[in-house]
Write a structure and sequence with these properties.
globular, 235 residues
Length: 235
């Protein structure tokens, strides 16, 4: 059973070793993401399941190399085969120092919702109290300086996503349209569909401590706590 969820951005800007001088926007985002992971680990979970977009759907090795060399080439820094997808690498970096069991699952960006539901549902039925860590971004078309330039449709789609995350609305995440998300560069769609499959059937107390688009990309940090019974900790 999934007992708690933490959603963080998947931006490579959160990866250690990629930044130069301190950037206040990234520092605030990193602090919010770290706080959500701390919340997740405080909920007496037995394991952490990490989900993020990838080329293929399924488990990834926990000790796979980081993609830092590919993203930021430098003397003595070499890319190697089998590097983690960026979203999983970002989430893994946020778990640094975590002493409980954790596992990594990729969600293929070009697969349909049924594939991700089939991955998420069994994760939600695992025994014990599971913690779900989801790395996902919203649209990259929110401003003229965004990676995908400005598209007026992006704000409406992002509002639907943020409403679902803020309200603990599983059906809202499950209803995300793959074609619209692809057109508007919503890179987190696949991971949120897995999350919907894993969280289906539960009632959730949700909180969103961070919501911004400092680089024209929608970044959100959210936490969900299962409330079918009494919550283990206050939000």
């Amino acid at each position: 059973m999934i007992a708690a969820v933490a959603c963080t951005p998947q931006t490579p800007l959160l990866l250690p070793g990629l930044g130069g001088r301190p950037v206040p926007e990234i520092d605030r985002l990193r602090d919010a993401a770290a706080g959500a992971v701390t919340f997740l680990l405080e909920q007496e979970v037995d394991e952490v399941i990490v989900v993020g977009a990838a080329r293929s759907t399924g488990p990834h090795p926990a000790d796979a190399p980081d993609p830092t060399a590919r993203l930021a080439p430098a003397p003595g820094r070499r890319s190697v085969p089998g590097e983690l997808p960026v979203p999983l690498a970002v989430a893994r970096s946020l778990l640094a120092g975590c002493d409980m069991p954790w596992s990594l699952y990729g969600a293929a960006q070009d697969a349909g919702p049924e594939v991700h539901r089939d991955l998420g549902a069994p994760l939600g039925r695992r025994p014990g109290r599971g913690g779900l860590l989801v790395a996902a971004d919203g649209s990259a078309c929110r401003t003229e300086k965004a990676p995908g330039y400005f598209d007026p449709r992006a704000l409406g789609l992002d509002q639907r996503i943020v409403t679902a995350l803020r309200d603990g609305d599983v059906s809202g995440l499950a209803a995300l349209d793959p074609e619209a998300c692809r057109d508007l560069l919503v890179s987190g769609r696949a991971a949120w569909h897995v999350m919907a499959g894993a969280c289906e059937g539960g009632r959730w107390l949700a909180r969103m401590p961070y919501e911004d688009d400092p680089f024209g990309v929608a970044y959100w940090v959210a936490t969900w706590l299962r409330c079918d019974g009494e919550p283990r900790a206050p939000l």
